[in-house]
Design brief:
Rossmann fold, 9 helices, about 45% helix, alpha/beta, about 230 residues
């Protein structure tokens, strides 16, 4: 059970994050120059109010689908843009909330997201949400077991978000590194605080790995990410 202090912190962040979230979403809504010669998609035209309603409705139901909280979605959105990520992989789509945040970031970088979900109902719901957000052409949704599906993907990816079975993180890592995670790439593993015990093998491995710089951080003061950055010159 969460303490009163944790609940107060989360409520504060939820309220203050709303304004930040609206600013974060606003940038991709505008036209961004994209190099058509590279075959990139141009950002879709969308109604900011309608998009914000969708994100708010999904956030309110997020606890049913174990999706990331809004501040974590905003953080992923910012990371995608700050790192200029172009080829992004998500393991664990859930109902599509984090996929939409990352997809909106990719509107600015001209990149694409591939997201894998094992549960058929959640996969179908995510497909509907991604379509409503106007991101169907930028987000590829795969239904299946990510431990199998990752082996079928070419890569290399420059950003990978791990948010599926916590005990399977080491296996995902072994299937991504070194060929499918490029130098300078980032591995972002969610629930690295609350689910530290199930993720212990992965967290110990990535923190000691000579080819990665690793940090654990939180946007909620409750749970958070383990970010691993692969060195460009190992």
């Amino acid at each position: 059970m969460k303490s009163k202090e944790q609940l107060r912190r989360r409520e504060f962040l939820k309220k203050t994050g709303a304004g930040l979230g609206l600013l974060a979403v606003a940038a991709p809504l505008e036209s961004v120059a994209v190099d058509a010669a590279e075959g990139n998609l141009r950002p879709a035209k969308r109604d900011p109010a309608q998009l914000w309603r969708l994100l708010s409705e999904m956030d309110a139901k997020g606890y049913q689908y174990l999706s990331v909280p809004r501040t974590d979605g905003e953080f992923l959105h910012l990371l995608i843009k700050a790192t200029r990520a172009r080829n992004v992989l998500e393991v664990g789509t859930s109902h599509g909330y984090s996929a939409i945040w990352m997809g909106l970031g990719l509107e600015e970088t001209g990149g694409r997201l591939t997201s894998i979900e094992i549960d058929a109902a959640r996969h179908d719901l995510a497909r509907r949400h991604v379509s409503e957000a106007g991101l169907s052409q930028r987000v590829t949704l795969i239904k299946g077991d990510a431990h199998v599906e990752v082996t079928k993907l070419d890569g290399p990816f420059d950003f990978v978000f791990l948010d599926a079975d916590k005990e399977g993180q080491v296996d995902y890592f072994n299937k991504l590194y070194p060929k499918k995670l490029g130098p300078g790439g980032i591995l972002a593993a969610h629930n690295a605080i609350q689910q530290a015990n199930p993720m212990k093998d992965y967290l110990d491995m990535i923190r000691k790995h000579p080819d990665f710089d690793t940090v654990t951080l939180s946007t909620t003061m409750d749970d958070g990410f383990c970010l691993g950055y692969r060195h460009r010159n190992p």
